[in-house]
Amino acid sequence: MKKNMGSIDKMLRIVIALVFAGLIYFKVVEGTTAYVLGALGGVFVLTSLVSFCPLYLPFGINTCKK
Q1: In the structure, how many helices (H) and strands (E) does the chain have?
Q2: What is the pTM of this model?
Q3: pLDDT digit string, tens, across residues 33-50
């Protein structure tokens, strides 16, 4: 896997995942919405850790500095 995410992109994904976690923790969202946001937040954290987003490939997006 070639890295295709820059540091700003990774930081934004982590912040969004933390917002999702806060919404779930404080029970602002519940039920199916909470599960979907939790899964999406998990994907955001995982892609940030590996610096690779598979959805960027078909669109040719690369936010990583060369």
Answers
A1: 3, 0
A2: 0.91
A3: 999 999 999 999 999 999
Buried b (16+ CB within 10 A) or exposed e, 24-59: beeeeeeeeebeebbeebeebbebbeebbbeebeee
Length of the chain: 66
Does 65 score more than 90 pLDDT?
no
Under 8 Å CB-to-CB from 2, ≥6 apart: which residues? 52
Distances from the Cα of 10 to the Cα of 32, 44, 51, angstroms: 26, 8, 7
